[in-house]
Fold beta-galactosidase.
Amino acid sequence: MYSKKFSLVKYIAAAICLIALFATNTFGQTISLKGQWRFKIDAKDEGVQAKWYATKLPETVNLPGSMAENLKGDEITLKTKWTGSIYDSSYFYHPRLEKYRQPGNLKIPFWLTPAKHYTGAAWYQKEVEIPADWKGQRVVLSLEYPHSQTRVWIDDIEIGTQYTFVVAQNFELPSSLKGGKHTITLLIDNRIKAINVGPDSHSLTDHTQGNWNGVVGKIFLKAGSPVYFDDVQVYPDLKHKSAKIKITLKGPARVSSSGTITLSAKSFNTKNIVGVKPLSLAYQLKNGIATVEVNYPMGDKIVTWDEFDPALYRLSASLVADDGKKDEKQIQFGMREFKAVGRRFEINGRPVFLRGTVNNCEFPLTAYPSMDVAAWQRIFKISKAHGLNHMRFHSWCPPEAAFIAADLSGFYLQPEGPSWANHGTSIGEGKPVDEFIYDETNRMAKNYGNYASFCMMAYGNEPRGKQVEYLTKFNNYWKAKDSRRLYTGASVGGSWPVIPNNEFMVRAGARGLDWAKRPESISTYAKQIEQFSVPFVAHEMGQYCVFPNFEEMKKYTGVYKPKNFEMFQEDLADHDMADQAKNFLMASGKLQVLCYKNEIEKALRTPNYNGYQLLSLNDYPGQGTALVGVLDAFWDEKGYITAKAFKRFSNSTVPLLRVPKFVYSNNESLVAGVEVAHFGKAPLVNANLLWTIKDEKGLVLAKGSFLQKTIPVANGVNIGDINFNFSSIQKATKLNLELSIQGTEFANDWDFWVYPSVLPKLKTNFYYTTDLDEQAKKVLDEGGNVFLNAAGKVVKGKEVVQTFLPVFWNTSWFKMRPPHTQGILCDPKHPAFTNFPTENHSDMQWWEIVNKAQVMNLEDFPSGFKPIVQPIDTWFLNRKLALVLEARVGKGKLIISSANLSPDILDSPAAQQLYFSLQQYMMSEKFDPKYEVTYSTIKDIFQSPSKIQFDTFTKDSPDELKPKPKTN
């Protein structure tokens, strides 16, 4: 503070001097080291013995950057030693895939293909001019995100070695370093050595970011005071409107020093800036270290941080030693308390429901995570636009830029230790990884612990070994050490053992859709979670596949190339379906959305359910290529749903409808219960819920409202019932029911189908049969028409398992585990559907027709042939399939259905209606099949198996499919 007696001139002069001191050596000078570095690969590990640090390396690269970005490393071949598991070896052996194994046409299906690949040692070298006035200062070399073990030399003096996946590596240079020209040499090694976190861990695997070598973040030298802030941690206390500040100071060993620390803070992203009264305290440094702890009053008017109002403070801690040396450290933090209260989460005393996605480190342009705050803000902005408020980082910890962006965005994060200790490693068995997990999570807490968004933490993903004992101790360690966040031992599937002292559960078991039974919106996951007394979050919810978006390939302008997509596209063309790729994407996408909507709604209506983590909102490019996102790997929309539409059923507030089914006959009534899941900023006072029922033309058939009601922050809030009699509907009709909360953005809707309970008896002019018998051949030979109900009789295509649900994750990673299809494609304008309202994709009315129905493999049908109803096959095989087809056979015309469509269908109004519509079509002048197919080709569907069968050529299976050993 300056005296009021200071003249204006003296004040300005003093301010200029202060700024000058700050910009030079008082608080540190910085020299950027980005740009060109000398380089050499050390594939034979000869560089240390040959003293490469004392030689001039011959090549050059640019840093920040990876070797692949600099086109350094090995060409991709069939013998490339990838970092990551491969369970489906059919690619390496199957004859039909041989052309994709050829040099010049190498296309790998398991993940994206980098420009170059290298695991091993590589050397980086740069000359730097050290200023003379840095003498006597502490000089640090900072490397953000090297991958992953780094040894450093300054000239011919080795400085040290560091190994981490989670924070910047900082190396203190010798205090005797003189000004002038010096050479900095880095030896970076990205191999898995003694510390094995698991080759499928997202911190290093080729399935996601790739096991790259280099330095990709900030690179600089910094000079500053020898006495400095080593650590400052802020522990908010909302109840007392204060923050406990824990400070660690360091200096030269065997040096004692004293001085004053001044703390000051103010909000920086609020409408009105809230300042905090500065606080000064003395420190005493003994033997190069001092710890100071103080309670810092934040004032009467504190601002708190959450998803709705992410108010942040910036704490400035300044140090002035008695000898005049100075240091300063700035810390971003938020006043918030994220707790588990019984079976629910609370943020600042208010219930919170986590609507999350899993981040698997997909960065297809660089193959490593962005170091840029703006890039992470984009990711969180897109996630929030889809109604999400949470992100889990699967077996990796993001860089500091992600925490800064999440703080600003109001997003709850669950970073994890960099380990999936399952495939190739384990925990709790005395391996080096055991201690490394503690080291890494401590580094995470020290460097990122002040960020308000850092709300949860786990060791990592799905381990094996003595996991209960190890993770129980891990939880106890962290609960005692740092109460600012919640801890769970690991994020796991449903078959992993329960860690008893988890503060929250991230588990499977209470997820998925039981669509082996008729779809409904009444059931919950309550039974599956009743055993847990802490908050429950669904692990990796969803995983519903869509067909590849080949238009996405042009986006891969960086280090990765979509050779997997190229392979799938070429294979699709080889199977005569190249022109259907976009339709397959859109139709499978609509089914994916239907599945996500129903699963999320089921979670929202479950009592004591506290969140879900989708796997994931965007595509996962590894593990066989898992196209499970409604967004692509670039976080862009694919065209079949918008963020606004997704947010209707995944938001802080979601109207919900309880119905026993979605398909009705017109002698029934809709009896629907209405409720709301509300996890907003505050209760909705006197909320007015409206409902509307419309037909496909937008005609309002009925509407109404409920008594105004204050909706608390909770789910399962009952609003009332809707009753609507369908008797006025005389023909097959699709209806839409919408619920909305007046004066808000909150709305949701559902489609229903109503069919006549009694259909006209038709005098048909075709032959109906369940066998391709002699009478059928005779009718066709004589120019007649035949309807063949082939349900249960198909041989060619018998191996294809179809359910209403689509492929899970992908068929390669799980060795062709069923189901194998991704919904159906049809043309709603086809006259066969005149009396059966449908879109071009699977919807609820198709469930009773499609679920578990056989499909036909049309591998021998004429080029260009398209069936009436076409199941979409897994893109790893791209078989042309049919559920309903039409063809000219001999002189006659034929329709075949491998779904059970017949005159005797009972309790299946949709199947009954589709059969009626097909009958009407066959008796009309519009029944005019485009393609002619020989009788022998038709007959072969019921005699010969498919020519190409799936074979993994491996005996092993993913650990996810193996029986789990019993543990205590």
Remarks:
- The two ends are 63 Å apart (CA to CA).
- Residues 577 and 954 are 29 Å apart (CA to CA).
- The chain has five domains: 31-223, 228-324, 343-647, 661-755, 767-941.
- The first strand starts at residue 29 and ends at 32.
